[in-house]
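Reply to dn_fold:

You asked what the input looked like. This is it:
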Amino acid sequence: MSSDALVLLAALSSVQLSKGLTAEQVGLLAAFFTCLGDNLALLALGGSTENCIQGSK
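and this is what came back:
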């Protein structure tokens, strides 16, 4: 899938997910997906969250 198609898919998904939600609910959903994306990126780079936790001690 091209990067243009991914951007379009993300935009359309955002609109659909936010329908009928309050601004506060949309903000909470946005924060959740930000955390999800950040954790996926860390896992992709580090392989495991245990490595991140043990490395910080």
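The first helix runs from residue 3 to 18.
Hope that clears it up.
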